[in-house]
Backbone:
């Protein structure tokens, strides 16, 4: 029996700015987690990861991050990914500032 | 302070030019990230959680006003208007963009600073007592020898690919303010029969396996120091474990081989290499020493100081906590707190950096220091200038009178910034500082050191905190483990773990219970938290933390 696959998104940091980025369904990188493609099939996720890793001139440190699908898009299952999509808690810097 | 010679300037310029070309090649795709990563790390550039981070060395924590102003300019021009001073006397910029880093390094070079060897498996920035050259209890200024070690270790061809990073700290005072026992090599300047020498500690370190350094040499003559250190690092370079990252530090090598075996190997290597040191190192040291000549101290009445101390309670609180004894009785060492209640420990804005530079120029012989406790020091201030200095600091939000008190917390960047962290540190420090300020208990509690790390790498020195806090990830939730009784001074010891950890929302009440237990159990205000712990042990504090029947509360 195949093991359960936790849904994931592909994430990385932008090469030039270091910003956290996510891969969209269209295969482009976005700064917004809500726009990320959520991958529910393990084999598909692995293939998409290989494609993403090939974009080494755009991004750094590509990996799959666990998410929960919601009506508002992917939601992180771990606090680390939550911090990555928000920014630091001591200043209004990072993504939280960009959204404001 | 040390000024670059022509060789230094040319070396830094060449390294910066190399790195500029490497960045260009990474951006145009000529270099892969695997090829580029070791090159950027050699220049202090990390990729962290939200952005790149540039770590800049402040050798032995010493800088002048011009350098501080450049740090401020960089913060404003290429970052988000602030910098973070670390426990290793570095400054970290949290938001630089890759293409700007070569320009930042060039700006640093203009004021004789760089980011070389602030990362990687090499000898890192040499740290020293932040009161160096000023402290009343000092045997000798540790900075000249720290500078000699910096020059010897920078780009040393034998030591660029060590088993892991290697940290050296130097103190010139018997009261150890440089945490020498928690370094790979700790050097303590000592005096024997009128001769200056070094007690050499080896194999100290915190992190996953905290260890207190062991004495490798009880008294090493000055002339033997550099070849002896070279022999020590060379022995570890050969013996050190490269098969397991967690066993690669010299503390594990010393533990596995035993200090006697390591000493025998170091002595044998030292005997071989000593003749190759023709004495040029001592000639260089003499030249360096001349550059660390004390400023021309002035003499004059101090009645401004005594009058302000008598009349102004705010100044009195500041003087009681933030001043330390200077070797000249008319002078004081001033510690400027970067721990205003609720602030991020170690952070300074560009405006604050510029103000501190101005004040150092006006009142402090143009000298500043960065402490491992993440504060800024003006080492030489005439007492008559202290009231005016305090007023200027207070107006800029830098007059917090809390040095050594419960809100003077060391906190690493934690998961708010660091890619290695497993939990946050900064909000914990902010919460504790704000709470005890609200309770108005800080001065009543007296001297206490809280140190917080966001992961087991222990950048926040939690093992040697009187109260140590370690942030961990427990099944996807931030959890905090408490240790008690750690000490970072000359008789350093690692704290004892209290028991199960606490969730983030449970932690502040737990710290409060520890503090109330101390206030209830101490033999009067003169007995510090650490002394009370050493007298009573863990029992009353463990009961306060975990036994619901034990209740300590505010009187």
Residues:
């Amino acid at each position: 029996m195949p093991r359960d696959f936790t849904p994931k998104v592909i994430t990385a940091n932008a090469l030039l700015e270091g910003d956290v980025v996510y891969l969209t369904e269209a295969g482009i990188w976005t700064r917004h987690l809500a726009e990320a493609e959520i991958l529910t099939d393990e084999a598909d996720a692995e293939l998409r990861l290989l494609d993403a890793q090939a974009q080494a001139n755009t991004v750094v440190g590509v990996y799959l991050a666990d998410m929960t699908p919601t009506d508002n898009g992917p939601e992180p299952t771990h606090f680390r990914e939550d911090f990555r999509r928000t920014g630091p808690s001591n200043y209004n810097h990072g993504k939280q500032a960009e959204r404001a | 302070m040390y000024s670059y010679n022509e060789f230094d300037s040319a070396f830094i310029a060449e390294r910066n030019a190399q790195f500029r070309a490497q960045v260009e090649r990474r951006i145009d795709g000529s270099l892969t990230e695997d090829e580029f990563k070791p090159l950027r790390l050699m220049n202090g550039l990390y990729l962290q959680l939200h952005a790149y981070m540039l770590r800049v060395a402040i050798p032995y924590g010493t800088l002048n006003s011009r350098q501080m102003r450049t740090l401020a300019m960089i913060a404003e021009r290429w970052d988000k208007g602030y910098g973070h001073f670390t426990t290793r006397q570095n400054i970290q910029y949290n938001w630089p963009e890759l293409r700007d880093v070569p320009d930042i390094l060039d700006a640093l070079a203009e004021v004789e600073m760089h980011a070389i060897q602030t990362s990687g498996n090499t000898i890192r920035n040499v740290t020293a007592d932040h009161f160096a050259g000023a402290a009343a209890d000092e045997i000798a200024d540790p900075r000249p020898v720290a500078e000699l070690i910096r020059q010897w270790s920078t780009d040393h061809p034998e030591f660029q690919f060590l088993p892991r990073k290697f940290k050296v700290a130097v103190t010139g005072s018997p009261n150890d303010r440089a945490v020498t026992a928690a370094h790979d090599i700790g050097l303590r300047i000592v005096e024997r029969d009128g001769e200056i020498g070094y007690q050499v500690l080896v194999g100290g370190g915190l992190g996953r396996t905290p260890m207190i350094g062991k004495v490798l040499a009880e008294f090493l003559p000055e002339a033997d120091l550099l070849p002896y250190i070279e022999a020590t690092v060379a022995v570890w370079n050969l013996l050190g474990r490269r098969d397991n990252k967690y066993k690669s530090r010299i503390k594990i090598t010393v533990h596995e081989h035993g200090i006697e075996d390591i000493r025998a190997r170091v002595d044998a290597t030292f005997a071989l290499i000593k003749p190759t040191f023709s004495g040029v190192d001592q000639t260089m040291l003499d030249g360096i020493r001349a550059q660390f000549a004390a400023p021309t101290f002035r003499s004059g009445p101090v009645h401004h100081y005594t009058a302000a101390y008598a009349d102004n309670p705010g100044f009195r609180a500041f003087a009681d906590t933030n001043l330390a004894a200077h070797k000249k009785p008319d002078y004081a060492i001033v510690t400027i707190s970067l721990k205003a209640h609720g602030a991020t420990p170690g952070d300074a804005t560009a405006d604050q950096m510029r103000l501190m530079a101005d004040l150092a120029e006006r009142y402090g012989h143009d000298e500043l220091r960065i402490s491992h406790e993440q504060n800024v020091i003006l080492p030489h201030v005439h007492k008559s200038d202290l009231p005016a200095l305090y007023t200027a600091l207070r107006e800029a939000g830098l007059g917090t009178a809390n040095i050594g008190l419960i809100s003077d917390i060391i906190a690493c960047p934690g998961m708010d910034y660091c890619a290695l962290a497993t939990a946050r540190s900064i909000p914990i420090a902010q919460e504790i500082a704000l709470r005890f300020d609200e309770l108005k208990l800080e001065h009543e509690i007296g001297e206490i050191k809280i140190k917080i790390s966001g992961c087991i790498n222990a950048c926040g020195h939690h093992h040697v905190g009187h109260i140590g806090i370690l942030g961990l990830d427990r099944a996807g939730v931030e959890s905090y483990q408490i240790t008690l009784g750690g000490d970072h001074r000359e008789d350093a010891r690692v704290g004892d773990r209290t028991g199960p950890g606490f969730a983030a929302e449970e932690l502040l009440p737990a710290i409060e219970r520890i503090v109330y237990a101390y206030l209830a159990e101490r033999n009067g205000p003169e007995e510090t938290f650490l002394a009370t712990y050493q007298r009573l042990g863990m029992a009353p504090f463990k009961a306060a933390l975990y036994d619901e029947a034990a209740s300590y509360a505010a009187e």
User: Anything to note?
Assistant: Chain B touches chain A through 30 residues (CB under 8 Å). Chain B has 18 helices and 21 strands. Residues 201 and 215 of chain B are 4 Å apart (CA to CA).
